[in-house]
Amino acid sequence: MDAYLAAIAIIALIYMLLSLGLTLQYGLTGLINFGHVGFFAIGAYTSALLSLQGLPLALTIPAAAVTAGLAAWPIGLISLRLRDDYFAIVTLGFSETVRLVITSEKWLTNGVQGIPGIPRLFETISVGIGAQLAVMGVILVVTLAAIYAMRRIVASPFGRVIEAIRDNEEALQALGKDPAGFKIQVLILGSALAGIAGAFYAHYITYIVPDQFIPLVTFYVWMAIIIGGVGRVSGAIVGTGLLMLFLEGSRFLRDIVPGVSEVEMASLRIGVVGLLLVLFTIYRPQGLMGDFTKR
Amino acid sequence: MSLQVTDISKAFGGFKALSGVSLEVPMGALVGLIGPNGAGKSTLFSVISGFMPPDEGAIGFDGRSLDGLNPAGRARTGLVRTFQVPREFAHLTVRENMMAAAPGQTGESLVGLFFRPGKVREEEERLAEEVSEVIRFLRLDRVADEPAGKLSGGQKKLVELGRALLVKPRLILLDEPFAGVNPVLIGEIMERIRELNGRGIGFLVIEHDLEALTRLAPQLYVMDQGRILTVGAPEAVLADARVREAYLGGAV
Amino acid sequence: MFYAQLAVNGLVQGLVVGLGALALTLVFGIARFPNAATGDTMTFGAYTALTVHKASGSLALGSIAAVGGAAVLALLAYLTVFKRLAGRSVVSLLVASIGIGFMIRAGLGVAFGHQQQVFNVPLSRPIRVAGLAINPLDLQLAAVAVVALAAVFAILYLTPIGRQMRAVADNRDLARVSGIRPERVMTAMWLIAGGVSAVGGMMLGIKTIVSPEVGWEMLLPVFAATILGGIGSPVGAVVAGLVLGVAQEVSTPFVGFTYKIALSFVVLLAVLLVRPRGLFGRIEGVR
Q: Looking at the predicted complex, does its ipTM rise above 0.95?
């Protein structure tokens, strides 16, 4: 298999984990989380730092999940107290604050310089295509497990309740069920997935800097689930595929069309994401769950 | 043993929505609550069911005070409310709507769903049967597997009623069950309410449609401008001049 | 004394935040949604002023162009996007506004590149007033802000359209019933919001730098100020902006330079959880 394809597959799988987490939180439960990248960052830095202390990746990656999940707990508590647009703003502020903390606490994170030399998965075994395929294999297995877990959740009573919360929270309360615990669990679980994605990301690119964890990443994932079809696991998969097409396609375009600089392409990407967000909001509200209810 | 509403007052800014409202619904009774638009009926329901705190007054159910209980807590005591504008879980099927309502499901915890799949499956099967019965009772068989959002207004109200039933309520606060429902369905809904009342479930029914409610409830409270005007049997209440004035003087 | 100096330093920053918050609170109060494109509109104002200033040498011309350009931009956003989403959920409008912000930022990035640019304004020696060092540039910027604020408040409180805007913010249904035409109110609102953002952005650009991100980075403090001041309260927005700006500077010795932005997040959270109404607001519905 081509090294390039393996690389794309790895990034795609990482985005898939992010999409699954956001699907759980927004697609199924209706929570507007604009801070997804914050948990991605927490996972990445946690695993990176712990592994550089000598701990094996088999420990640091789960640790990343746990840390990201724990960080989501106060966010979950906050979600109980705020209307969805205020919650969105707060989560956005959260992810920016995470980036701020990462940038400032140089003693821990090396600040803007970032953390180089993060150990790869299977670093001791080999380098080159073999190792890369092994890495892809591991991430694939984890992603498949996540997809399986999500499908189980969707088909379960738990899945029913969170969808009920999304569709009409007060009605659920009037039936004697408290949405609180469910919302918190969903935020923790989805963020733990983001944390795992972050850990894999760190161990793949081996050099992380705060600037990789900007809100644009959150909105890439939002775009993916909106385009793929909100509220369905299949939607997350399709959306991630389309996102990768977009990201790789735009890079490809740059290679073909001369005169477009790296930064210009970055700007164009932001513009396209913005345009798609606007278009989908206007024309395909099912992309934002609008078939029957007026959302 | 009943629903005791004592001296409830609620103001929004300068506007007094409820003033010293008291009423009682004995266990298993079918009581109606009528009044012109803006009388405060739905506000009263929101206060009773815990969605809004009263400024003054107390609510007791089954001998216990409901003070401090949030809506979910109140529903768990057996006091379930429905909503004036139907609040179906639009993207779930009718069947799923009702299955979501049943309490005590092991599969609703993540631990349960992943680590006790056998028990979850068992409960789901039993629940599915129970739900099928309710669906049959409500004559919703044909739309049982349609997304609830696609139903007509009247059907949605039946779904809400079905959901309430799965909670095994002792008293249902029914908010305008006939509003916006086609006349044929109104008769159906009324029949279902009567049957359920026959089984011992109490009802406090808000209705704007006087005609329908007088056929249904043996006792009516009349509200106007945030107060209880009078209470009594339908004929007596409708003959009351004050009631007629309230309806004619206000919005009819 | 030291803190007084920091406070003075924070005033211009506070005015910038206050202007942004004013724009945000107008939209929040009248159109009833948080407009996340406010920050990028500020950036647009900064770039417009920069470009015109470079071409003409006149800051006055630059500011007029900035205000005009951003006002039109905001109105365009309304006509093409927000108007079509009228009646949809707040979240839809919020997501759309993020999209619009992204598009503005992308356009600026493509047009001007990503390097930081600065206004070519003459350096000036700080003057000493009562033992405090005050930068004449800051005074000029403050003056501009005050003029802009005065204009906006004059419109809001002294003109018929301003009264209508306040009526819609107070009680939309009542306003509609009393014959206020929503179109005109919306148009006025977006023009003003755009113009105000532009002034803030321009000030920010002159005081610091101009890059495609500057406005977006202001979004968090601007949100915090809007909510602290009370949503829908223009006075609240400005006061809260000043308070935040000053607080940010004064807190620097304690929390360090980068963390002063985190102060906004803390304020935002605290207000939403403890007193959602903010200082002067009336709308309580954060839950």
A: no
Structure-token pair, residue C103: 């598009």
Residue from the list B91, B124, B166 with its beta carbon closest to the beta carbon of A163: B91
Q: Considering only CA atoms, which of A139, A117, A123 is closest in space to residue A10?
A: A139
Give the burial class of A284: count Cβ atoms within 10 A of its Cβ; 0-12 exposed, 13-18 middle, 19 or more buried.
middle
Q: Which residues of A touch B109 (CB under 8 A)?
A: 158
Give C139's strand partners: none
Q: Quote the pLDDT of residue C150.
A: 94
- Chain A residues whose beta carbon lies within 8 Å of the beta carbon of residue C102: 219, 270-271, 273-275, 277
Q: State the average pLDDT over residues C105-125.
A: 88
| B180-203: burial string, b at 16+ Cβ within 10 Å, e else | ebeeebbeebbebbeebbeeebbb
Q: At CB < 8 A and 24+ separation, what contacts does B53-56 make?
A: B54/B8, B54/B9, B54/B10, B54/B18, B55/B9, B55/B10, B55/B11, B56/B7, B56/B8, B56/B9, B56/B20
First to last CA, chain B: 35
Both structure tokens of A234: 């299949």
For chain A positions 181-240, those within 8 Å of chain B (CB to CB) are 182, 185, 189, 231
Over the stretch B108-147, which tens digit does the pLDDT of each residue have? Answer: 999 899 999 999 999 999 999 999 999 999 999 999 999 9
- Indicate if the pLDDT at residue A180 is higher than 60: yes
Nearest C-alpha in A relative to B160: A171
C44: closest CA of chain A, how far (Å): 15
pLDDT in tens, B227-249: 998 999 998 888 888 888 887 76
Instruction: Please give the CATH number for the structural domain made up of B2-87+152-249.
Output: 3.40.50.300
d(CA A189, CA A33): 13
Residue in C187, C148, C161 with CA at minimum distance from that of residue C66: C148
Is the CB of C102 less than 8 angstroms away from the CB of A277? yes
If pLDDT is split at 50, 70 and 90, which confidence band does C253 have?
Answer: confident
Comparing CA positions, the residue from A136, A112, A134, A116 lying closest to residue A125 is A134
Token pair, residue A34, equals: 């604009």
Please give the span between the terminal C-alpha atoms of chain A, in angstroms, as a whole number.
Answer: 45
DSSP-derived 3-state class of residue C210: strand
Going by their DSSP bridges, the two strands B56-61 and B64-65 should be labelled as antiparallel
- DSSP symbol at B171: E
Cβ atoms A194, A68 nearer than 8 A: yes
| E strand or H helix that includes residue B25 | strand B15-26
Which has the closest alpha carbon to C46: C189, C192, C211?
C211
Q: C115: nearest CA in chain A? A: A263
From B136's Cα to the closest Cα of chain A, the distance in A is 21
Parallel, antiparallel or unpaired: strands B171-175 and B202-206:
parallel
Angular region, A100: left φ>0, alpha ψ -120 to 50, beta rest: alpha
C-alpha angle A226-A227-A229 in degrees, rounded to nearest 5:
70
Phi, psi of B207 (to 5 degrees): -145, 145
Identify which of A219, A237, A239, A243 has the alpha carbon closest to the alpha carbon of residue A228: A239
CATH class of the domain at C2-274: mainly alpha
Domain with CATH 3.40.50.300 in chain B: 2-87+152-249
CA distance linking residue B196 with residue C235, whole number of Å: 57
**Could A178 and B80 be called an inter-chain contact, meaning their C-beta atoms sit closer than 8 Å?**
no
Q: What is the share, in percent, of chain C residues with pLDDT greater than 70?
A: 97
Over the stretch C202-245, which tens digit does the pLDDT of each residue have?
A: 999 998 999 999 999 999 999 999 999 998 899 999 999 999 99
Cα atoms in the 13 Å half-sphere on the side-chain side of C63:
17
**What is the per-residue pLDDT across C150-197, written as a single tens digit (0 to 9) for each?**
999 999 999 999 999 988 888 777 777 787 888 889 999 999 999 999
